[in-house]
Design a protein that fits this description.
This protein has 286 residues and is mostly helical. Helices cover 74% and strands 0% of the residues. It has helices spanning 2-9, 27-34, 39-47, 56-67, 73-79, 81-176, 179-194, 197-210, 216-232, 243-247, 250-258, 265-276. The chain is rod-shaped, with a radius of gyration of 68 Å.
Length: 286
């Protein structure tokens, strides 16, 4: 475009004897003389030409020159083969300028949309970040909910177990309610017998230690005498206490009788003396 502008600004010289055939205006001779004398610099200026910044005035002036009859392709070829490329380049620049009129609004629209897209993407990134935080919160709450559900199930199982134990305990208490009277009587009896414990033990110990060699009648007389003497000494003793009453275990006695031991008082007393003595006792076996 600069070439065309220079060619337009330079006035054609008067025709001389060396005038190129077909160069009616002198433009080609002027271009060859002034522009092509430094091909390297000229090529560089064409390569670095600001094709985006062409003004409408320049485009109109260059377009008028190229459209003139002096700038037909045949005349340019006859003037200089190098000018053919320049003509093509200038025509391409004019076409490029016309294309820019269509492309630049689209470029501006693209820039606008790109800016809007950047804003939308930034907003989207922010929303995704917030969404990730919400999802993490939901995940934590779901995990906590699962833990609480497990805890609830465990506590419910414990509650059910406690209810069952409570129900069984209630049944046991209800079943033992009838034993209250007997237990009360037993406690009263044992409390009363506690005061006679020393005297009763004296009679029982004396019978285990000394009565083994005597008959049943003599044993009864000994027990009666020991009870009386114990009472005289100021030690409480039950009036009718006997070794059999004090030391007999009814279950053990049943086992003895089941093993063919006689069930008379003398035999049972002998068994009590046998298992209550530290040494081999001396006794009469009927």
């Amino acid at each position: 475009m600069e070439v065309s502008c220079h060619m337009m600004q330079l006035k054609p010289k008067k025709q001389t004897q060396n005038k190129v055939e077909g160069d009616t205006g002198g433009y080609f001779e002027t271009a060859r003389t002034n522009l092509l004398n430094n091909p390297g610099q000229f090529m560089k200026s064409m390569q670095e030409y600001d094709k985006e910044g062409m003004s409408e005035g320049t485009v109109r002036r260059v377009g008028a020159i190229i459209a003139s009859d002096d700038f037909t392709m045949e005349k340019v070829k006859s003037a200089s083969q190098a000018l053919v490329a320049i003509l093509k380049w200038s025509s391409a620049m004019l076409q490029y300028h016309e294309l820019l009129k269509v492309v630049n609004p689209k470029r501006a629209k693209v820039r606008e949309m790109s800016e809007m897209l950047a804003v939308v993407r930034a907003s989207l990134a922010e929303k995704r970040k917030k969404l990730k935080e919400v999802e993490d919160t939901i995940e934590g709450l779901e995990r906590m909910f699962a833990e609480k559900k497990e805890l609830e199930a465990s506590l419910q199982a414990q509650i059910d177990d406690c209810y069952k134990k409570l129900e069984r305990a209630g049944k046991i208490i209800a079943g033992l309610a009838g034993e209250k009277t007997r237990w009360t009587e037993t406690v009263a009896r044992l409390t009363m017998e506690y005061g006679y414990l020393i005297g009763n033990c004296l009679v029982g110990a004396g019978m285990v230690a000394y009565a083994g060699a005597f008959t049943a009648q003599f044993r009864q007389e000994l027990e009666a005498e020991w009870r009386a003497r114990t009472a005289e000494l100021g030690v409480k003793v039950l009036p009718d206490i006997s070794m059999k009453q004090l030391l007999e275990d009814p279950v053990t006695t049943k086992l003895w009788t089941a093993a063919s031991l006689p069930n008379d008082n003398l035999s049972i007393e002998n068994g009590i003396i046998m298992f209550g003595s530290r040494r081999w006792p001396l006794m009469i076996d009927p």
